[in-house]
Write a structure and sequence with these properties.
alpha+beta; 16% strand; 326 residues; five-stranded mixed sheet; Alpha-Beta Plaits; 2 domains
């Protein structure tokens, strides 16, 4: 309220002063026009001067009221929304990762290609693996899409197949972009000044020193321009990495029977144990059978030969002695 009353007090005297000045200007115009013109046309000139004076006073009063209102609102006179500083353009580096699984990797790969083409993007890197039959089992793609369509592209890719994982990383580099642009312009201006000094140099010592300065500043400018180009590329297009893997067939585990007892359960257990024992014995017999065959081929003839030689070397039994007769 205090600021409003103060503004009204200021606007009142300003309006009165402007009205007085306008009337004095009108009277001066009337007198000058009356001396230079005829009697018949004087009244018309005065009336037109009064009208212009009245319009001028009204305009000055409007300006005074506008100035008082601008003082009350805290704005500078003559300021307008068009004269304000423009909004700063934001620069963001966006990186996305999408992991998908599908029964048909090749079909999912073609769907991804359609999405990239619809968003006016490009594939910068691709790696596809196949099995022995030539069927695609895994595919990895790195794509670049315009930053304006990054969100829409991520949403479409997540629906291309069964989604396993999705990740988005955003880095605001607005300050870095502005700083790099300013440094590039400053370095270009410094380079131009050094070139002007080189053109005016007379002594060999000055020329050598200025050329060394020129070389170092040119190298720094090239480095800044490389940073500027990299930031421009990363903020203009976003990078998305897509992994497509073939879905593995998972066999359901057989349900375990819980709490079963009785004759049939015992019989099943005994049959399993008997089968395991028979398999073990068959394994042992199968392992010993080659040795038995070799032993039969070579051992039996040797045994027969040894037996025959033992019979030949055995002494003959003595004949029984006859008993004397009585």
């Amino acid at each position: 309220m205090t600021s409003l009353i103060r503004g009204r007090r200021i606007a009142g005297p300003i309006a009165a002063l402007t009205m007085t000045g306008a009337l004095l200007t009108g009277l001066a115009a009337c007198s000058s026009s009356g001396e230079s013109s005829s009697d018949g046309g004087g009244s018309d000139t005065v009336s037109s001067s009064e009208m212009s004076a009245g319009d001028g006073a009204a305009g000055l009063q409007d300006k005074a009221s506008d100035s008082s209102s601008s003082e009350l609102s805290g704005e500078e006179p003559g300021s307008s929304p068009a004269a304000r500083a423009p909004a700063i353009e934001r620069h963001v580096i966006s990186i996305g990762t999408v992991s998908l699984v599908s029964d048909d990797v090749a079909t999912a790969r073609r769907d991804v290609q359609r999405i990239v083409d619809s968003q006016q993007g490009s594939i910068s890197e691709e790696n596809t693996e196949t099995d022995d039959e030539g069927t695609a089992t895994y595919s990895r793609l790195v794509i670049r899409v315009p930053s304006s369509s990054f969100a829409a592209t991520m949403l479409s890719l997540e629906k291309a197949a069964e989604l396993r994982q999705s990740k988005v990383t955003s880095d605001d580099v607005t300050t870095q972009v502005i700083d790099t642009d300013v440094r590039v312009r400053a370095q270009e201006g410094s380079l131009r000044r050094v070139e002007q000094l080189l053109a005016r140099a007379n002594s060999l010592k000055d020329i050598i020193w200025i050329e060394s300065q020129l070389t170092s500043r040119q190298a720094e400018l090239d480095s800044l321009k490389s940073q500027q180009a990299y930031l421009s590329d990363q903020t203009t297009d976003s990078t998305i990495t897509i992994d497509i893997a073939r879905k593995q067939d998972v066999k359901p585990e057989p349900k375990k029977e819980k709490g079963e007892t009785g004759f049939l359960v015992g019989l099943k257990g005994g049959m399993k144990a008997l089968g395991s024992f028979a398999a073990a014995m068959a394994t042992i017999v199968g392992a010993l059978l080659p040795f038995a065959i070799v032993l039969a081929i070579f051992g039996v003839p040797v045994w027969l030969l040894v037996r025959r030689s033992a019979r030949r070397d055995k002494p003959a039994d003595p004949a029984p002695m006859s008993e004397p007769t009585a």
